[in-house]
Fold this protein.
Amino acid sequence: MMNALSFSLSEGHDHIQLDHLLKILGLVSSGGEAHQVIEEGLVSVNDEVELRKRKKLRSGDAVVFEANSVIIE
């Protein structure tokens, strides 16, 4: 079963980096772990495997990692 989450961008910011999102939401324990799971192809953005650690996520993007689905607002 998927755990549906949402993340609201801070006012004045139009994006968040993928590695930062995973860490901020507590889906990984460190930035290093975020880089590892991204490099291993375990994270999808908008239904495609994303290998760029610093991929800029914008409003409307959907991230899936393990049993978590995150919508960027």
Q: What stands out?
A: DSSP finds two helices and seven strands in the chain. Residues 3-72 form a domain with the Structural Genomics Hypothetical 15.5 Kd Protein In mrcA-pckA Intergenic Region; Chain A fold (CATH 3.10.290.10). The helical segments are 18-24, 31-39. The two ends are 22 Å apart (CA to CA).
